[in-house]
Structure formats: C-alpha cells, structure tokens
C-alpha cells in the first residue's frame, strides 16, 4: 500500500520546508521526507548555529574592548562547551519551530532516507521499514555537503569540516582555514576573536573572491589588522596529521613549498551536491557538473520532477533555496510566478567586519559593457557609526551612467548584512538614482550611508 500526495519533497532544508508550506497554503496534499533533522543544513549546521557562535565572539570582542566604552570588565573568559551548547540550543529551537510549522500546515513528515524509484514514486527507508509514497509532483531538495580535500579527509579530530568546527571538542590554538569564501572567513573571524592564532590560505589572488575587489582589499587589511594571517595565491600540497596537530605543506606564490604546524585545520573549499543514490540516473535526470539541471521554474528534464536549492547549483544560499521552492510550487499549482534569476540575490558574510552585496561588482558591470558611475561613502563620515564605535567600513554603489539603474551595491562594516536589503528592494523595484536620492533616511542611522553613497555617485555627497 502506498500513500498518495499531490507533492512529495525530498529534503527539508530551507528549500524543501518552505516549498512544503507554500504548497499547503495552495491546497496541495504534501509530504516531506527527511533523513536527518527538519530544517536541513541551514537551521541545524549552517546559517543559524554559525550566527549564534559569531554573536558570542562579537560580545567577547566588545567585552575585551569595554574600556573603549567607559566600562570595566576584568578577568573575562569563556567556557567553550557553554558557547557550543548555546549555538546547539538555538539550532534546536529552530528545528522544533519547523516541526511545528509542518504540523500547523498539515504537511506529512516522513522520516528516513528517500529515493525516487519512478518519476511519481519515492521509497523511504527507515531501519528495515520501507514506505512508498506516490505523488503527482516530486521536488528534489537534498542540498549539499562539505567538499573534502582530495588528499586529506576531514577526521573531526584535527581536520574539520564546518560540522566539526561548529562543535569543537577543544579550542584550536593555531588554526589553518583553507578557503576564503563566506564560510571560511566566518569561522576565521569567530576563532580569531576567541583567541586562536588563525591563518587563511586562498588559492585565488584575493579573499572573498566573489565580492567587489575593493571589498576584498578592505577585508584583507581589516582581518590582517586583527591578527589573521592571509596567504593568497597559495595552495596546499599535503596535510599530515601528527600526535600534536597537523603539518601543512603550503605552496606559496613563488611555487616554493614550506611546512607549517597547526593544531587544527578547517576545510572550507566548497560543497558537493547530494545527488547520489536518490534514483536520478535510472530516471535519466540530467545533471551539470554534479548539480541537477533545472529551468527558471525548477523543472528538470523529466516531467513532474523538480529540483531546488543547493542541489541545483550556485549561489549556495538559504534564501535562494527558499525562493526557488516558492516559485516551483506556485508554478505547479498553476499560478504564473516569474522565473527565478540570480541577478538580485544578496550575499552576506557575518564576520567582523561584516560584508554584504547585491548585483554586479564594478568590474563585472564594466565587463558587461556598462559605462558606470560609482559612489563610495566611508563609515567614518557617519555619525551613528562613530557613536557606535564602528567607524570602519564603506558603502559602494554602482550605477549605469546612462540610465541611472542601480547595477550593484557592496558594503563592508557593522550591520551591513541588515542594511543590504534596502538596495535589494530598490533593485527589485527597478529604482533609479533619482528616487534613491529623493528618499528620506532617518537620522542618525547607518542607513544614511546608503543615501550618501548614491549621492556620491553623482557628486552630491553631503558629509564628505
Ligand atoms: C557553515 C555554513 C554557514 C552557512 N551560512 C549561511 C548563511 O549565513 N546564509 C545563507 O543564506 N546560507 C548559508 N549557508 C548555506 C545554506 O545552509 C544552504 O544554502 C541551504 O541550507 C541550502 O538549502 P537546501 O534546502 O537546498 O538544502 P539543505 O539545507 O542542505 O537541506 C537538504 C536536506 O535534505 C536532506 N536529505 C538529503 N538527501 C536525502 C535523502 N536521500 N532522503 C531524505 N533526506 C535527504 C538532508 O538531510 C538535509 O536536511 C551556510 C552553510 C554552511 C555550511
């Protein structure tokens, strides 16, 4: 006997569970299959628990600098287990929240490992029990996992992936972070603020390589000033685990290989999509470099089978997964949603300082043939930033010189991950420089820098 649904979703990350809720809202009888914990990587091992850790390191940083604010804090310290427990508790609270949302929306949750055995059938294995689910539509939302180095598998003791780094058995004394994308930089920032001696190795010429070049350069200086060693244009030849730590063979810019000792290593070199053993090959579902190929409404090449989120490719972000889930389900339900595109998806890095961006970098805008007008406003010119003791950073805006279209915005500094949404909305509404300049920004706020940056692009900045 099999249960029959309008929609079955394989994987309950921010792609899958959000799609399930929207489907329920639209009246589809929906089931979701999860082998581990509801909420996926994002809630349990990604976005949320890292932000809980970063909040701790941020407060610890402020406590260490209490004097700057006229305060006294002596003998400050931390209990690593309690720090980790707080982060796990936050993840647990959100996992319970998703359980509640599934119940409220009458989505059937099926625990176990799922695989497609036909284009309308998923078999879920839990222990020696098998459940067959029939569905008119199936969404694959199985996400991704950390990529291992080809020559050294993460062992959880000395060589960590993000999962290990989030529940450290001990505090690293000398930490090597391999890869300077958002995940690498966030962990580097956390452990550095907690007192570890941190080195980042990056193969490309600059850290945070997808960001605007000026943002990468600023972050390079800011992190170096904080004591993090940054080795760009640098590769890794080998990692050898010893009794006391790890010996890394590091290949520098000049091709010279040197050895260095570390207590722990975090490997943050990207992700691998979870596409194995879920029945894709037998159904002939096309993939591209491991990711499932989809159109702008998440349709695969097999009718009735869809894919969303990390399993379909970059950007590997929770809000991208959720958005794709909603578009996919609305199309299934017969609504006519806009096809999704990646041009207006913000990206954030929650390090200290923070980084946030949307749209084209200045270089990419020029490569695309735009004549550009660029505005840049520093935090030091903003009253609120100075009052907060956060005068480090800038807001950069890139406009098309002919049309006034906001092509991109790039920010570095305190709270920019909250500010960026202003520009995302502006882009979504196809706002030009004229409307942005006419908009009144509350004083004193960090958001005034967003106004000043736009004014600056047209030679009209007030406070600089
Ligand atoms: C350390 C870290 C920090 C991050 N921080 C951020 C951030 O700040 N902001 C942001 O936007 N993104 C962040 N991300 C990325 C974000 O977590 C992912 O983009 C997001 O989780 C992708 O959602 P998803 O639904 O596609 O897949 P996932 O969240 O990976 O969920 C997939 C689910 O499918 C389940 N599954 C897989 N195969 C099967 C199967 N065969 N049967 C049953 N269940 C299965 C998995 O167990 C998992 O629960 C971070 C990631 C990491 C690792």
In short:
The protein has 464 residues and is α/β, with parallel strands linked by helices.
Q: What features would you describe in this structure?
A:
With 464 residues, this protein is of the alpha/beta class. Helices cover 32% and strands 27% of the residues. The chain has 14 helices and 24 strands. Strands 1, 2, 3, 4, 5, 6 and 19 form a seven-stranded mixed beta sheet that branches. A hairpin with a 5-residue loop joins strand 23 and strand 24. Helix 1 (16-25) packs parallel to helix 9, helix 3 (47-64) runs antiparallel to helix 4 and helix 3 (47-64) packs parallel to helix 6. The protein is globular. The termini are far apart. Residues 10-16, 33-36, 40-42, 46-47, 50, 113-114, 141-144, 162, 183, 274, 278, 309-311, 316-319, 321 line the site of flavin-adenine dinucleotide.
